[in-house]
Amino acid sequence: MRKIFLFVLFLLAGSSLAQEVKDLRILHWNDFHSRNMPYEVSKKKDGETTRYFVGGAAGLYGYIKQNMNINAIKLHGGDEYQGTPISSITNGFSQIQLLNVIKPDFMVLGNHDFDYGYWMLDSALNIAQFNTLGGNVLRENINKPFASLTGFKVVNDIKIGFLGLSPEELPTLTLPKNLSGLRILNTDSVLTEGIAALKSFECDLIVLVSHNGIEYDSIIASKFHKDIDVIVSGHDHKPLFKTKVVNGTLIVESGSGGRYLGILDVQVDTGKDTIVMYKRELIETVLDENITDKDMQKMVEKMEEGIKPELQKIIGKLEIDWDKDKNLGQWEADAFRKKTYSDIAFLNSGGVRKNLLAGNITVGDIWEINPFGNTINLIKVKGSFLKEMTANHLKKAQEDYEKTGYYDYLIVSGLYVEYSGKDMMDGKNDYIKTIKADGNEIDDERIYVIATNNYTATQINKYFGNLSEQVTAEETNIIDRDLIIEAVKEAGIINNSYEARFLNID
Q: Fewest CB atoms within 10 A around its CB: which of 301, 340, 456, 491?
């Protein structure tokens, strides 16, 4: 496709453009993570903190309906599953039933959509009344894609081709057993094949729905900008309030949890297969009874009815806001270590799924913070190997960040490390300056017990790179969520502050 962009905002009123110019509206959302009920957020302005409710399946659907028109399409950027109890209890079927009402035109499959096993996802999709994409995931036994690579739709006489990419790093983003028999195909090869297929339909517009994150999708745009016009992104939970433009390809993303609905209005010259104008908007789905879809709300309430009494039980009180990347993650890592009598705990930050404002802590809060039902594993290593693991993790995190702009770092308990980021980036080997376990220097010959979850234990290379020894994990069969619920009950009142446990001395 030829692409000659005029990057100016336009008013969607009467147009004096040529007859071939047609209007298209793209409504999009991503990483909903089964946030079916409205949830509370806070916002600071002029020193004042305002707390209010957003989202929910019925709220999001209400905003979708409010912003629909005859020239609109609905796209889902993946990760509908995982995040609240109802998704885990129903193995995702609850979410498919709700999406059957919303009816996205296309949804790409994200990594968490595979969390209950690909066979369970396949079973749920048998009742889906919408199209799914993800042609880079191959079923090896039958040599066919798990979901479609391409899709096609005509809207307002615009012939639109769709491509779908599940995460390239899918094997490291869920438990290996969930993907047994599946293989990820080369992204460039898959896109080349898909674009060729869509060109045969003489598409006016090609839209990629990708669950790979903005940085990765920017690389795709730099390679395939001559053919891909728009990328609807997901995975990294970033709300893009302004369109990112890479070599003329428009990239949009709408955050996570249904807090924002993305709108991209474009005008397409169908004679030249070119977007000539565009306008971008993110709408916050603030709870509004006049907008919330009442029928959808009844569906959600009926789903939640049976489990609500247990989830609403108050088990503790939080006197300070919990930040999942800071004091919340550390509190959970400390609980892992205490409950298992281990020396150290490693907890992947991506496993802690939401913040929590000060107030009562309920069973449901812990389910939403720890939705995956991972189990606790124990790893025993010598002190010398523990030093190697720590050094490797710091270097691996830096390499991942340079490559993708993101890293799923480890939250630690019982370990204190001072390192020189400058020395590490300069390629020096002695960048760790201090490393202590429980306040004492590491003894190279002593055996240390590490508590972690089974996801981290099965993804050792993801977090620690190539190690000199094989790591063996012992399964405790203790579910992390159950451990944390018990720990909150025991603590009663919680007000822990964040500590610097990995300290870059530069």
A: 301
At 276 the pLDDT is 95
Given a contact cutoff of 8 angstroms between Cβ atoms, the answer to whether 18 and 258 are in contact is no
* Separation between Cα atoms, residue 476 and residue 183, nearest integer Å: 30
* pTM for this model (two decimals): 0.77
Q: For residue 116, count other CB atoms closer than 10 A to its CB.
A: 22
The bridge status of strand 493-494 relative to strand 249-252 is unpaired
Task: Tell how far CA 124 is from the center of its chain.
Answer: 20
The architecture of the domain spanning 313-504 is Alpha-Beta Complex (3.90)
CA distance 270 to 260: 30
322 Cα distance to chain centroid: 20
| Cβ neighbours, 10 Å, residue 180 | 11
Q: What is the pLDDT of residues 194-226, one digit of tens each?
A: 999 999 999 999 999 999 999 999 999 999 999
One-letter amino acid for residue 206 of the chain: I
* Whole-number Å distance between alpha carbons of 376 and 374: 7
Tokens representing 39 are: 């949830």
**CA pair distance 356, 364, nearest whole angstrom:** 11
Residue 19 has a pLDDT of 57
At 62, which helix (H) or strand (E)? helix 57-67
For residue range 401-459, list pLDDT tens digits in order: 887 777 778 999 999 999 998 998 888 888 999 999 989 999 999 999 999 999 999 88
In the chain, the N- to C-terminal Cα span, in Å, equals 49
Q: Which two tokens stand for residue 81?
A: 């599953």
Among residues 224, 229, 257, the alpha carbon closest in space to that of 79 is found at: 257
User: Alpha-carbon distance 14 to 495, whole Å?
Assistant: 57
Check the CA dihedral 212-86-116-346 and report its sign: positive
Answer for the pair 210, 164: CB distance below 8 angstroms, yes or no.
yes
CB 205, CB 151: distance < 8 Å: no
- pLDDT, residue 355, reads 94
* CA–CA dist 411, 326 (Å, integer): 8
The domains of the chain are located at: 23-303, 313-504
Cα–Cα distance measured from residue 395 to residue 401, given in angstroms and rounded to the nearest whole number:
10
Q: How far is CA 395 from the centre of its chain?
A: 23
> In the CATH hierarchy, which top-level class contains the domain 23-303?
alpha beta
